[in-house]
Amino acid sequence: MSNLVKLLNFTAHPQLEKSLGYDSNHPWVAFHWEPEIDQVMYSDGKNIGAGISVAWQIFLQHPLVNSEVKDYQLNETDQYWLILDRKNRNLYVGTAKIVSTMLEQPESLNLLACLDEKVDIVSDFSQNFNYSPKTRLRINLFDQNIKSLIVITASVLIASITFGSWLLMRSRFQPQANQNKVSTTVVNSVACGVGGSNDFSSFFNTSNGEKELHLVGVYEARSDHRGGYHPTGTINVKIERKNKPVILVLSSYEPVHWNVSLDKEVKLEKVIINGYHDQEISGISEIPIEEFSYQGTGRYLGKFAYQWDKFHHHPSTASLVTKLEQFTKTNLTSFQGCYRGTNFTIK
Asked: Which domain holds residue 336?
C-alpha cells in the first residue's frame, strides 16, 4: 500500500458509486465534501459533478465505515477525499491534492492497484463477517435493504428540507416550463467540459419587465486550488442579448478573473459580482460594478449555486435568487453554470 493514501479495511458494494450519484464508466472515481455548498462532489479525472449528499452522509455514518474514516472528517471538510478502485472495489483515503493529482495521472492509479492486487476482494454479501485480527475485514456495505433505505431516507429528507423553497420557485417558474425546454437556444455554455466539468445546466424565463437579469454561476475556474492556495482562474463571458438592458451577475466561490465582452448594441446596465474569494473583472468600462466577495469587500450574497436542475429548489439558491431580484428589482431571466467553467455566452 502507498504511504500517500490509506487503503481502507473493507471493500465496496458493486452499487456504491451509483448510490452516491455517480453513473459514468471510468475505472476510478473520488468523492469529497464541499462545505461551502453543503454538497458531496465526485471526480473521475475527466468528469466533475454533484453526488447525492444524503446518501453520502448515511454511508459515512455506518458504524463499520465510521470506525475507519472518522478521523478524516469526510462529511465536514474537503481536506481528504475518498477514492474507489471500481475494478477491485478497494477504497482509499488521501489528501485532496494527492487524490486529484492521481486522478489526472492514470499511471499512478494503475500502480496503486498493482500494489494491492493481492487483497482478498469480497464480491458477494455475507452475513457472517470474520473479525479475526489476522483476516482483513470483509464487508459489503450496501445490501438491498440499505440501498432502499438510502432512497427512502433521501427522498423524505430532501422533500422535508426543501419543500417550502421548491414551492416558491415552482410557483414562480412553472408557467415558463415549455420555454425552459428550449433554453439552450438562449443561454449557452461553450466550455463546461473543456477545461471545466460536464455538468452544465441552464434556465430561461421570459422577461416581462423593462430589464433582464442574467446569472452565471460556477464553483471554480481551475482545479489546482487547495487549502491555503487559491489561484485565480479566468472565465470569458460574452453577451449577445440586445432586446433589453441587461443586469449581469457573476458568481464563484473560488477567485475568478471575469473577462466580459459585448456585441454591438448590447445595453449592459450593471454588473454584480458575488464570491467568497476576491473577484476581478475586465473588458468593460464606464459601467457600474458592484462586488460582493467576502475577502474583497467583507460581504457576499450567499451560497454559490452552479447547477440549476439540482439546486434550483435548494434554500441557499432560492435565497440567492431572491436577494438578487430584490436588490435589482428585476425578475431572473436566465441562469447558466457548472462546477468548473471557463466560457459562457448569453444569447
From this structure: 178-346
